[in-house]
Amino acid sequence: MTLSELYRKARSDFRNAEIDSPQYDAMCLIEHFFGVNRAELVVKGDKSPKAEIEAEFLTAVEKRSSGYPLQYILGEWTFMDIPFFVGEGVLIPRDDTEILVRETIKRVRGVENPKIIDLCSGTGAVAIALAKAYPKAEILAVELSDKAFSYLKENIKRNACENIKAIKDDIFRLYEEFSDSGFDAVLSNPPYIKTDIIATLAKEVQHEPKLALDGGKDGMIFYNSIIENWKGKVKRNGFIGVEIGEDLTNEIVKLFKENNFEDVYVLKDMAGLDRAVFGTVH
Description:
There is one protein chain. Helix 1 (3-16) runs antiparallel to helix 2 (22-34) and helix 2 runs antiparallel to helix 4 (51-65). The protein has 282 residues and is an alpha/beta fold. The chain has two domains: 3-66; 87-280, Vaccinia Virus protein VP39 (Rossmann fold, 3-Layer(aba) Sandwich). 40% of the residues lie in helices and 19% in strands. A seven-stranded mixed beta sheet has the order 5-4-3-6-7-9-8, with helices on both faces. Strand 8 and strand 9 form a beta hairpin. The protein is built from twelve helices and nine strands. The chain has helices at 3-16, 22-34, 38-44, 51-65, 70-74, 98-107, 125-133, 146-158, 171-174, 203-206, 221-229, 249-258; strands at 76-79, 82-85, 115-119, 138-143, 164-168, 183-188, 234-243, 262-268, 274-280. The radius of gyration is 21 Å and the shape is elongated.
């Protein structure tokens, strides 16, 4: 088949499989496997690729049609214009998380050499985006999963973030190792999907690690630990910021207030849904 025919086949297969963005996904795979972008496809569309590369492309189209994430096929995904190495075993960075990062960038502006810890770091999207914004910041990125930790370390290396230290540990106990109130910010995009809801999520999400999704029966298990146990590790006038599921807003705001945080507020994402909560330690 020619490149144009391969593109049309992928687009058609994705439409039939009810993939949300069939044209975009088809073009991403064309560019990934054949090195041809949309403009070049117009000129080179009548060319036929090597048989072995065509076979790899068609296998990828079949996988994507089954609901396998595009990001895992590509092996890389961009968050805040930063490339991240991704694959099976690590949560895919999402645009929704930008609100957590951008608010933190605003809040630590003016703090000299801020000290920040990113809990449940995954690919390192939050930590690395902050390290790029504040090269003099001291950032710790904590991840428990073996697979996710390997992606975290690789992404730190690929993005040359020498101001990030990766820590493989459990956030439910790690706080005990920090004796003083040394952090300007404690951040997390933790697992927050209620256990019984996970099986109802989109096919693509089903391929992502359950460890990165499962927030327990009520979705609150990680928030309880972060807000209650890590508060004492935050400097005066420092803060905790967490990404949330919009169905948990009231419970999380209540938890912040019960733990005597001040200036507690909710931020919405680009879709107008509650997406982050911040609280200040005084």
